[in-house]
Design a protein that fits this description.
mainly beta; 1 helix; 36% strand; elongated
């Protein structure tokens, strides 16, 4: 899987970046153990088709 992700052109992109505003974006994250409006930490990264591209799989984030 990792080999495939890097050999596709453009490569699949993983992002474990917390949004600049710290808000929980339900378009790219699922909540982990509790709900909330601000991200505390990232449990699993968001998978994008390519950098700044469409989301292939939502990441998992723990809200505060």
């Amino acid at each position: 899987l990792c080999w495939f992700m890097q050999t596709t052109r453009p490569p699949i992109h993983l992002s474990a970046r917390i949004p600049d505003d710290g808000r929980m974006n339900n378009d790219i994250f699922r909540a982990y153990m509790k709900s909330g409006t601000e991200v505390d930490y990232i449990v699993w990264p968001v998978m994008y088709l390519y950098e700044n591209g469409p989301v292939l799989n939502k990441g998992i984030a723990q809200p505060k």
